[in-house]
C-alpha cells in the first residue's frame, strides 16, 4: 500500500488521494439534513480522547476539519458515549455525534455507552482504533491476543451492542461501509450505534477515492406507509373497542407525530398514557393525558390500562417497566402496535401496523371516521387522573415528611422554565421523575430507563446541553442525580465548565444505593452492601464533600437543608452563567412515591433460611396471576 501525505486531486481520473482517516472525516463533513426547514450538518461533531490508536492519523484528519466538525475532549470514553446518546436523543435521532477512542481500554470503555444507545435505539457513530492489519509489530501495546484466532480483537465486543459493525481492513472499504453506517443511524426501524474498527496502519494508508464520494448529500428520514391490510385489521379492532387506551412511546417524538397523536386522541376521545421514553408526548394539563403507565407509573394510567380492552401502542417497544412484566393489562386485551420496527410491532400477540407513527396515526384516524369512546369511559379516565394529580400534589409537598426525591422534583418543576430540559437515569430518581414531573413543554424530558445506566446523568446532561445550545441557548439543562451516580461518573462537570455548556445539577444524597436497598428490603432481604451504613467492609465512614468537589472542577456549588433553601438556590442557579450544583440530603427510607406501581417480575430465591425471604417469594408470586403469556 502506497503511503502519501499529499491529497492529490486528478481531474482526468476524477479521484482524490486521501488516507482512510482523512476520507472518513471529509465524508462526514459533507453529510447534511434538513430539520424544520433548515439545512444543517448531519454530524454535529464528536467526542474524542486520543491515544496511540487514533491520534496520529484520525487526529490529523479531524484537525483539518475542526471548524466543521467540532471535537469535544472528554474525560472518560464511557461518558463521551453517554453524551453522544443524549445529543442524538435531543435532536430526535435526526443528528448524531461520533466518538473516537484509542485501541484497547479506550475503546472498551465505550461498550457500555454503545449498549445504552442500542437499547434506547439512539444514533451514535463509533470510530475506534484497532490492532495493525499487517501484524508485523504484533503483539502491540494493549493488544489482547487470542491464540487460536489472530483476527479477534477487543473490538469484537461491540458486535452485540451495535446495529452496524465493521472493521476496515482496506481504505476502499469505507466507500461501502460509511454510507451503510449512516443509513443505519437514520433508519427509523434499525436506528442504533454504528461501529467502525480502524486499524492503526490502515488509518494512514492512502487510496484514490472517487471525487463523487465526497459530494454534498442531503439526507431525509424515511417514512414508511403502513400496509393497507394491517391498517384494516387495526381499524376493525379499535372500532370494536369499548374501552381503548393509547400507550404513547418515544417513537411518537422521533416521528414528529406529537400533534398527530393529540389530534387522534381528541378526535376519538381516547385516553393517553405515556411510557418512560414517551414522557412529554403531551402536556400535563391536557385532559386526555392520564399519566405514566407501568412499574414507575401512576394509579390513573395503570387503572385505565387494567380496564382497557384494546391497547393502541404507538412507538413503544413495550419494555417490562411499561407492561408491569405483562401484568398491567387484561389477559384478553387486544394490542394494536404501530411501530416503524417490525420486531416491536409484532410483540405479544399484537395486530401489527408496521410503519411511520405520523402516517399511521393519520391513516387510522381517517379509517375510524366518527368513532368515539363512550362518555362513561372518558369520565372514568378523567376521575382517575384527578385523583392521581391530587396524590402527586401531596407527594411533592415539603410538609410530606423528611426531604425526599419527590419534594426536590416538585420544587424544581415549579420554578423551571417551560423548555428547560430534564435529565435523569438509573436508581430511584428516574422513577420519581416519571411519576411526579408535570410536563410543561413537549419533548422536554430525558429519563434514561431503557438501559437504566448509572453515570448517564451528568454526561448525558452535558451532551443534551451541547445540543440544546445549538437551538435553545436561553433554556437550561437540569440534571437529577443521586450520590451513587455522582460518585460513579462526575467528570463531565469539568467538561461542561471547560466548554461553557452550563448545567444545573440537583444532587440528592441518600447515603448510597437507596432504591436497591428498598428493593432488597421489599424482597425480604436484610439491608446489605447498598447503603454505606450497611457495608460491613467499610471501617472508616467518611462523608464526601460534594460541594467542594464540584467547586474543584470549576462549578458553582452550594448545600441546602430544606425545600425553602433549595428554591432560593435554584433561582440563583438559573441566574448563573456556569454549571451549578445544588446538594441536599434526602431520606433513604421515607418519602418514596408509594402509589402507581405495577407488579414487576424480580427473581427471588425458591429456598432460603430467612423466613422473610420465603414470605416475600410467596407474596411476589401472587402477583403473577395477572401475567399475560405471549411472545
Core attributes:
631 residues, alpha/beta, Rossmann fold, six-stranded parallel β-sheet, 24 strands, disordered N terminus, thiamine pyrophosphate binding, flavin adenine dinucleotide binding, acetolactate synthase activity, TPP_enz, magnesium ion binding
Q: Fraction of residues in helices?
A: 25-40%
Radius of gyration: 25 Å
Count of helices?
Answer: 24
Overall tally of structural domains: 4
Q: What is the class of the largest domain in the CATH system?
A: Alpha Beta
CATH superfamily of the largest domain: Thiamin diphosphate (ThDP)-binding fold, Pyr/PP domains
Strand order of the largest sheet: 6-5-7-8-10-9
Describe what you observe in this structure.
The chain is an alpha/beta fold. It folds into four domains: 9-219, 3-Layer(aba) Sandwich (Rossmann fold); 228-389, Rossmann fold; 396-585, 3-Layer(aba) Sandwich (Rossmann fold), CATH 3.40.50; 601-631, no CATH class. Helices cover 36% and strands 18% of the residues. The chain is built from 24 helices and 24 strands. Strands 6-5-7-8-10-9 form a six-stranded parallel beta sheet, with helices on both faces. The protein has a six-stranded parallel beta sheet with strand order 15-14-13-16-17-18, sandwiched between helices. α10 packs parallel to α14.
